[in-house]
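Lab notebook, bench 4. Still working through the backlog of constructs that have no structural model yet. Next entry is a single chain of 108 residues. Request: give me the structure tokens for it.
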Amino acid sequence: MKHYDFIIIGAGPAGYTAAIRAAHLKQTVLLCEENLVGGTCLNAGCVPTKALIHASQFFHSISKAEQFGVKLEGSYDLSAMNAYKDETVAKLRTGVESLIKANAIELV
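Model written out:
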């Protein structure tokens, strides 16, 4: 059986940062995650919401362009907005996964 100095349950913001810190201190770390690394905020909460808000605010700005003498016909594509959100989340999650791997943290 393999020995670990730390076993951390949950790879959300607290879990993965604790795992990285322990790895920096030359500890062997096992990080356990039932779902996706990054936690609720990254995968289903704050980050996806803010990505959709950003796209919506951009559309709102375009709708006001005519008052500045810019004529645009704006429309939105909800599936493209969701793709933007998914791409943003995936990019950030990949970054977290890379940090975990780069610090030799075992993830299960």
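Notes after review: DSSP finds four helices and three strands in the chain. The helical segments are 13-24, 39-43, 46-63, 78-102. Flag for follow-up if needed.
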